[in-house]
Amino acid sequence: MSRLMEPPTKFFPPEWRRANQIMYDSAEAERARSERLSAESRRLMEESDKISKRMQLDAKQKLEQRINDIKFWRTELDRKLEETVQEIENLITCKSRVERALESCSEPLRVVLQCLAERQRRVSTDLVHDEVEQELMKEKEVIEGVTSLLQRTLEQTNEQIRLNRSAKYYLEKDLRDKFQAERIDDFCSVLTNTSPSIDNVTKHMELAVPGATVTPEEWETFSNINIVKAEREKNNALSLRALVESLLDQTAGDMRRQHGATSMALRLQVQEKKRAKGHLEDHLAEVLSEVTSQERNLEALRVAIADKEGPLKVAQARLSARGQRPSAELCHDPAQVRLLSEVKELTAHIKRLQEVQAQSEMELRALTHSQLALEEEIQIKSHSLYIDEVICTQLRQPVSIHSF
């Protein structure tokens, strides 16, 4: 046990000094390493601080440049949107004009169809395919052609409004997206290291997936496509409006010219029918006068025949009496000759008068038939005149062709 409790072996002085030196060298090496680490840390901190500030400044500059780019495109989009909205309003106004022009065709067409129907009520020889009917048919074709053309133009205008509204929608959507992007970039550009909301932002931040982003070139191309589309539709709308303007003037002019041609033909037809009716009335007056004259002539013939019947009976009675003379007294003397001649001549005169009387009666019947025919024709002309001068003219008077 005494051996176990013996004190440790003592070191010699050289060992003690060597141990101290080792401790000094170790401490010195540790201190040197610490100093180098501190220096490296300071260098790294200074370098990272410089890099961080430089990157933050560069990022801010990039954000400001991006904001300027967004503002530029927003200005372009705003200008194009304003032009598109204005063009849509112009197209809507143009559409209203076409609709009014289309509505204005219904009344002239109704009048033309009614005039054609009324003129079908003409009778006898007056039911003729005259110039008025030809012009009415032309006017019907013109109005129907104008109606069809305006209907197609209205459809084109509606389609162009739809296309312009589509361009407006994409411009507005692009503007909304750019407004939101500018607001976000404005917020990002004013963020600093000491901003109070920075912690909340970083907590909810989600890094964009590279595959879901677009390149700056694609970003510019996207807005440029919207602007080009809006510009194209605006130019198409301008061309369409110019076409509609020309079309409205042309169609109104065509309808006015045809309306005038029909009205002129109607006036000329009325004048011609009045002249024809006047001639018929003149002939009727002459025929009535001749009927009166022929009736007097017929009465005179009857009187003349009656006047010849007395002398004829006297002559016949004388001959009959003289035929009773006896024997040789039954002589063919000059008195007998004269009586025979008188009976013969009176009989011939009566026969001739009777023939003339029969002819006069036939002529009177012919005159009466002609009178009736003339009166009927005058009635037909009056009926036709009433249709053309009163009904058709009054129907057409309120019709007015305007340029819308």
Automatic annotation (TrEMBL):
Gene Ontology cellular-component terms listed: axoneme; microtubule cytoskeleton; nucleus
Predominant cellular place of this UniProt entry's protein: cytoplasm
Keywords in alphabetical order: Cell projection, Cilium, Coiled coil, Cytoplasm, Cytoskeleton, Flagellum
Compartment(s) of residence: Cytoplasm, Cytoskeleton, Cilium axoneme; Cytoplasm, Cytoskeleton, Flagellum axoneme
Gene Ontology BP, a term: cilium movement involved in cell motility
Pfam families reported for this sequence: Tektin
PANTHER family tied to this protein: TEKTIN, TEKTIN-1
Family classification: Belongs to the tektin family.
Assembly and oligomerization: Microtubule inner protein component of sperm flagellar doublet microtubules.
Function: Microtubule inner protein (MIP) part of the dynein-decorated doublet microtubules (DMTs) in cilia and flagellar axoneme. Forms filamentous polymers in the walls of ciliary and flagellar microtubules.
Name assigned to this protein: Tektin
High-level lineage: Eukaryota, Metazoa, Chordata, Craniata, Vertebrata
Gene transcribed to yield this protein: TEKT1
